[in-house]
Amino acid sequence: MAQGIVNKVGFKVGASDPASIDLSAYVTSFTLTRSADQIETTAMNDTGHRYVTGLENNSITVELINDDAASAVLQTMNTLFKSNAYFKCALNSSVAGSAANPFYSGLILVDSITPINGAVADLGVQSLTFQVSGAITVTSTGTF
Amino acid sequence: MSDIDNDKANAEWLVKIGQSATAPAPKPVTKKDEE
Questions:
Q1: Based on the structure, what is the number of domains in chain A?
Q2: Mean pLDDT across chain A, nearest whole number?
Q3: Is residue A9 within 8 Å of A91, Cβ to Cβ?
Q4: In a domain, A5, yes or no
Q5: Measuring CA to CA, which residue among A136, A142, A1 is closest to residue A58?
Q6: Is the peptide bond between A18 and the residue preceding it cis, with omega within 30 degrees of 0?
Q7: Where are the alpha helices (DSSP H) in A5-139?
Q8: Residue A65 belongs to what domain range?
Q9: What per-residue confidence (pLDDT) applies to B27?
Q10: For A50-54, A95-99, A137-141, B16-20, which range has the lowest pLDDT when averaged over its residues?
């Protein structure tokens, strides 16, 4: 794939490594934000501000259909609430890992969930943002 | 830090905060405990 629509994102979570509960079928929106702290190193005689990167500071924002079946969204998130959970995600979960489709994994802090959310007749969803604990592991081999 | 090192650091950190599958299993209940 060169350019294309985003419709094959994979998202797994779990209490143990590797994350094994596949929530991909419930994902309606997904954003992985990779960021690093910005450390200023500006010193005398510099004519502009200078920076280097510091620690990673990553996050995941995901919208999930709030399916209440076993191993689906509601029960999984209720179980993982207030813990650091393993995650794995990919742009395309149906093809092998590569430089064009790396797999990202690590730990997320499940500190906020919305088990009940919606107005009358709405589809129940959970719109969640998770802070990544530690750095993210990026692999370009294997399968999702 | 390599990816392998990152995975190891994550596992070790979970042990450090007391949230890990590798933590010691609960002490089995003995007959004496039940009495």
A1: 1
A2: 97
A3: yes
A4: no
A5: A136
A6: yes
A7: 73-80
A8: 10-139
A9: 53
A10: B16-20
Domain residue spans of chain B: 3-34
Using a 10 angstrom Cβ sphere, with 0-12 exposed, 13-18 middle and 19 or more buried, the burial of residue A90 is buried
Q: Which amino acid is at A60?
A: I
Residue A29 sits in a domain whose CATH number is: 2.40.30
DSSP A10: E
Residues of A with CB under 8 A from a CB of B: 15-17, 83-84, 105-107, 133-139
Read off the pTM. Answer: 0.86
Whether A69 is covered by a domain: the verdict is yes
B interface test, pick of A84, A108, A139 with most B CB neighbours within 10 Å: A84
- For chain A, how big is the Rg over CA atoms in Å? 18
ipTM over 0.85: no
